[in-house]
Design brief:
Elements lengths: L2 H10 L24 E3 L1 H14 L10 E3 L16 E7 L4 E7 L3 E7 L1 E7 L2 E6 L3 E4 L5 E5 L5 E7 L1 H6 L5 E3 L13 H6 L21 E2 L1 H14 L7 E4 L14 E7 L8 E3 L3 E7 L2 E5 L2 E5 L4 E4 L5 E5 L6 E7 L1 H6 L5 E3 L4
Bound molecules: 1-hydroxynaphthalene-2-carboxylic acid.
Length: 345
């Protein structure tokens, strides 16, 4: 058979000769399939408030949420290729009805006071800086009994769950769950490291582990990290963990809070995990593959996989706090996590 005919014949059988497939199939190192991206809070905030006029939770859909859809990931509506960041607002007196889905979620509380979320029958308070967890397939609803808009950031693993064809969603039989255990039960049971109720091994709590991490604890842990482990690539950084397993807070999604002191500058590194940063406090600049991205409070910044990045606090007075979600646990579980520490900026 002539060469040309051979290739036609083999492809007709939906067979692809490996020696003809270019680099994208197996590349020497991860390819850049999408770039860094940034959303400024000044562009998001008014539109989130605007959503207050256009939808009511429970009526038109069930959540007043703006999803951060990376322009290079329109197919998946991903914020990174694995994770979503979304911003949610709930107004006084509103209720976001109970449902559950296989994509898991974290919530980082931004502003407002007096709202609560109920996860598997456990009602939890939400205050600025708190970090909350909604595990896979957990019932959850939100309500706001305070004043003024309540805003938080949602982080979910929707893109990877969709890619794996694992999405299920179900509505609860009633609008809201009954509260079945003491408020903030998981915090009361598991929230103080190393000291637990004597009966802990025989309990059947509403949730198996800690669901709410208050800001005061995060701040104390950061202060302690600052005094004990210096990290030239991160400043001081703490990771939210599952206190019962010691592992990442969720199987696919990791979350961190880091602090940069006034004028602090980190060294550049890159890793195979992707990250979405939320600027909780402060102002600074992040270099990603040589491009500078300036950030202020409320901004969201994407660092794609295998991209060199270094942070700088641009204030000479105020500490900066960066919250981040990452897919690092997923990459580690698959043996794919790698980091390179470098000089590049
Ligand atoms: C969702 O169900 C919630 O339950 C928040 O609070 C954000 C983003 C995309 C899809 C579903 C919630 C979401 C979401």
């Amino acid at each position: 058979m002539a060469k040309k005919e051979y290739y036609e014949d083999v492809r007709k059988q939906n067979l692809e000769p490996l020696w003809t497939i270019p680099d994208w199939f197996l590349s020497a190192e991860p390819l850049k399939t999408y770039g860094p991206y940034q959303w400024k809070w000044q562009d998001v905030y008014p539109r989130l408030l605007g959503a207050g006029e256009h939808m009511v939770p429970g009526l038109a859909g069930s959540r007043r949420v703006l999803v951060y859809a990376h322009p290079e990931l329109r197919q998946s509506l991903g914020t990174t290729h694995t994770l979503n960041v979304a911003m949610q607002m709930i107004l006084p007196g509103e209720k976001a009805p109970a449902h559950r889905h296989t994509p898991l979620a974290i919530r980082f509380i931004i502003s407002g006071s007096g709202a609560s979320t109920t996860v598997n029958g456990e009602r939890m308070a939400m205050e600025s800086g708190d970090f909350l967890v909604t595990p896979r397939w957990a019932w959850h609803d939100h309500r706001h009994d305070g004043d003024g808009p309540m805003i938080w950031m949602d982080g979910l693993d929707i893109p990877i769950t969709r890619f794996l064809n694992g999405v299920f969603v179900e509505s609860y039989r009633e609008a809201m769950q009954a509260v079945t255990v003491a408020d903030n039960e998981s915090r009361k049971l598991f929230g103080i490291a190393g000291i637990y109720p004597k009966q802990i091994d025989s309990l059947t709590p509403a949730n198996e582990s800690l669901m709410a991490y208050p800001w005061a604890n995060t701040l104390e842990a950061l202060r302690n990290a600052r005094e004990t482990v210096t990290d030239p690539f991160e400043g001081a950084i703490v990771e939210y963990r599952n206190p019962r397993t010691g592992g990442s807070v969720l199987p696919t999604l990791g979350a961190t809070m880091q602090s940069l002191l006034p004028d602090e500058e980190t060294q550049s590194h890159r890793h195979t995990s992707s990250a979405a940063y939320y600027v909780y406090r402060g102002q600074g600049r992040t270099f990603i593959d040589g491009t500078a991205y300036d950030w202020n409070e409320g901004d969201v910044l994407i660092v794609p996989p295998w991209s060199w990045h270094a942070h700088r606090n641009l204030s000479n007075q105020h500490e900066a706090f960066l919250f981040a979600i990452t897919d690092e646990p997923m990459l580690r579980a698959m043996g794919l996590y790698r980091e390179e520490r470098g000089p590049q900026k």
